[in-house]
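COMPLEX REQUEST
Ligand: NAP
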Amino acid sequence: MAGVSLVCVPLVGKSVEQMLSEMATATAGGADVAEIRLDHLASFEPRRDLDLLLRNRPLPVLVTYRPNWEGGEYEGDDGWRFEALLLAMELGAEYVDIELKVAQEFVDFLSGKRPDGTKLIVSSHNYQSTPSIEDLSILVARIQAVGADIVKIATTAVDITDVARMFKVMVHCQVPMIGLVMGDRGLMSRILCPKFGGYLTFAALSTGKESAPGQPSLSDLLDIYNIKQIKADTKVYGVVGKPVAHSKGPIIHGTAFRSVGYNAVYLPLLVDDFESFLSTYSSPDFAGFSVTMPHKEAALACSDEVDPIVKYIGAVNTLIKRPSDGKLIGYNTDYTGSISAIETTLQGKVPGASLADRIFVVIGAGGAGKALAYGAREKGARVVIANRTYERARELANFVGGQAISLADLENFHPEEGMILANTTSVGMYPNIHDTPLSKQALKSYALVFDAIYNPTLTRLLREAEELGVTIVTGVEMFVRQAMGQFEIFTGLPAPEKLMRETLLNFH
Ligand code: NAP
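STATUS: Structure written out below.
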């Protein structure tokens, strides 16, 4: 049954004191349960230490004593472990975890002396893969058969589509179930558990304190993914890419969704094959995606309908499922975002100024280059393309009815005043922040210089243009505007511009 899932923070301190301090921090941070990982303690004196850990606990606790053969750190025999777990039950621990492999032995050991009030979690971990739905269902049945109050299955995602099998099994499970898929490709399983009826999910106290691969931090789970608001009918959005962990999308869109009370969550989605991702998560609840490298062309190929200019640009960065018929509609907010950033800045300097009839030089002929070139042409600018590979510059220039020029010739290109320059190459991007695509001397010919790079915000190109008194527009401005465009496509609501801008700047 879908609803609220508990958020449990594993305590991984090496001493009881460290664990007590972690427990206090987890309580203050909003955790519902703390997992006492006895196997992490450097020395352990059961009666003394369990009493200390459980006596004044501020939170319900789950006591786990994981052996090394199941991914934990305990190397001794089971007899000692069983005694310690029984003691934890006697001291009133709310949950105790035992591994399926020895669960029957543990249940036999407890026979006649099992205290009431402690829920028994029987767990199974697979650090290699995620089995088929049939095999997962058999595993659930075996765990239930030994008398588990709560079923826990943790598997590993080789591909993001593996998570869908865990969701299917979890949604149909008759007893409370914790179903998690470990690894970066399984992150979604840790966030969407309330949607699919998961009993509990784990969150690291802070980055670096994970007890399993792919665990998000407590603050990310509560503040960015807003897990306490996720329900069965919450819509899922996300940024699809590879890599994707660096994306600021979840923080910007998550904050924006929350600010307008939109019932949706926004996730980083590490996807290897875009088409199989879309066909696996075909339900209307997976409602829309931001698309980043290397999937922008694949997103165009998968779209049922696109805005005509998107076909020319050859890339889709926003995809939604139209609610009325489920068709996939592709957009490109990179071009609207960048062109509107340039136009607005220009008009801020000279009211009424426009791009029409101006010379608009684009350096680069890749994805961003095409977006800027088509966007500028649509505004009536005279487009000039300069690119390292001249052939690509010529090709793009032909498509937009513009002129191609070599990078060397661009150094002395100043046919008229008031020109616009847009860098769409990665030259000057972190870590190569001392590089620049055009000399400072050559920038004198321009009225405005734009750089698509957003890391750093102020590239060498922009810094030198500013030193010459030339108006500049940053890649951060483009990023905010393309995200605002996506928000409006996703929700149908006006984007909370100030909030999105501040959120990006605060986390940049
Ligand atoms: P892309 O498709 O791979 O295109 C890269 C372009 O840069 C090509 O024209 C390439 O020239 C040129 N290039 C690469 N290294 C070069 C070098 N050392 N010297 C000269 N030219 C070089 O990449 P993209 O998707 O268009 O992205 C380009 C930049 O835009 C990236 O920095 C990206 O972060 C940024 N971007 C920003 C936003 C935003 O919201 N601010 C959105 C999208 C992209 P060749 O043709 O010769 O290979």
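REMARKS: The chain has 19 helices and 20 strands. Residues 333-349 form the longest helix (17 residues).
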